Amino acid sequence: MLTAIFILSPLQNLVYARMDAQDRLVRADYIICLGGDHSRVFEATRLLRDGYAPTMIVSNVGEAAERMRRLAVEWGAPADRVLMDDASRRTSDHPAAVANLANIDIKNDRCIIVTSYAHLARARAVFEAAGYRHLIMQEPRWERESRPADGPGWRGRFLVFPRIVYEGAAWALYWIRGSV
Over its length of 180 residues, how does the chain's per-residue pLDDT go in tens digits? Predict the structure, then answer.
């Protein structure tokens, strides 16, 4: 019953809007593509090709990271400009792993973080907790352009609800662990 009330009330759109942590896109030192669906890799590759940063880092675990790197190269990223972190299983693993991989100066280098809309705020919080100071959060362009500015309509709320629950649980877990 509470689930139905949440889905059908304006409260869900308010919570969904609070997930938006996207920034104005500017040139950076690195593009960091966090593991997830292929739209993130495609967007990070587009940003690299468009000159937003000289280096792209794909970050995931094991074979998934290798798959991300292969996709980036297939979609036009120069192979010598795509680094791969294959040791990051969770969002909280990414900041240290990519900094060590690329010798990122977390206090001075500017990093574009590419991830999904629902994941933007938590990813920002984790990177900031790790000491990163110059972050530019980006979701894939077509996700941004297809999302209604005032939140999902009542049908879309059923699709968004699982993402809100997942992110809420992840925030709670990360807060308990001290990751944010």
Answer: 666 665 666 666 676 777 777 899 999 999 999 998 899 999 999 999 999 999 999 999 999 999 999 999 999 999 999 999 999 999 999 999 999 999 999 999 999 999 998 899 999 999 999 999 999 999 998 776 666 666 666 566 677 777 787 788 888 888 888 888
Cα gap 76→79, rounded to integer Å = 9
* Residue 8 is assigned to a structural domain of this protein: no
Torsion (CA) 123, 55, 81, 83 in degrees, nearest 10:
-30
Within a domain: 14: no
Is 37 a domain residue?
Answer: yes
Handedness of CA 167, 38, 79, 24 (dihedral sign): negative
Domains: count for the chain: 1
The answer as to whether 139 is a domain residue is yes
The boundaries of the domain holding residue 89 are 20-151
